[in-house]
Give the backbone structure.
Amino acid sequence: MHLTPSYNGDAQGMSGKILVVDDDMVSRAAVCQMLREEGFVVTEAVDGTTALEQFSKDPPDLVLLDVIMPEPNGFEVCQRLKDDPETRLTPVVLLTGLESTGDRVQGIEAGADEFLSKPVESVELMARVRSLLNLKRFTDDLERAENVILALASAIEARDPLTEGHCQRLSDYSSRLAERIGLGPEDVDACRIGGVVHDVGKIIIPDAVLMKPAKLTEDEWVIMKQHTTRGEEICKGLKSFKNVLPIIRHHHEKRDGSGYPDGLSGDDVPMNARVLQVVDVFDALRAERPYKKGFSVEKTFSILREEVEKGWWDPDITEQFMAMIEEETAA
Ligand SMILES: [Fe+2]
């Protein structure tokens, strides 16, 4: 998971670092002066290439970007910033003298957050800049909270060296499976995050239970099962985890209603959870453990099919997953 540049402003969001990109020296100087007078830290770039270099060396909180510049122009620079997961959350305001709808549409398609017409009016500039900086601070806070959860999930995985790499594989497989079965980008993303954080609730499970080399007693099972509901509690404050929460809570449900924590059955088991559980079982069966060798792909598929027959996993998703693995193995 990436870390975005942190917000450089004060607690009220009244300052921050702004990168102004304009090949026209006069208009660039005017905008920079307005911003400096309001207490912002301003850096300047004379063209798109310099702007991108400067961005990676010293990430700003916001970019004011002229559209008409020698290649790469403002649209292209904006597009590159928005395509890169490291920079996409930094707001970009396009400065344009162009009024046509087509240019606005092109700017929106490039991912611009706002537009300002040149010559720039100070009042309008400050209003836009302040509101976007507040938004940036909010997304940074959210990003930090997400990173804490992800770090927590990694710490839990590290408690059991035998499962090393399990979460990363789950994340990779389940996001690709979600894409393959036609889920939307938000669900694909949820499956990617869910692969890492689905067992975050294990933080509350004592080592004696979590790593017990023998069968769990009935009481220990009661504790173990709580990792689903406790994980949901840990993450429920994060709005960006909306589609991840069902994975955390329901990844141990079964279609015949024999799973936990809610005994959901059939299609009541959320789709994202159904995706993750097939991948989870596959990876666990394939893994080598002190008490068992890793099963071959063929043996694993046959066990998965048996479990589908028992009414545990979604038949279509399981078939799609096995087809995905077969295609990748053949490639
Ligand atoms: Fe789990």
The chain has two domains: 17-140, 162-330. The chain is about 55% helix and 5% strand.
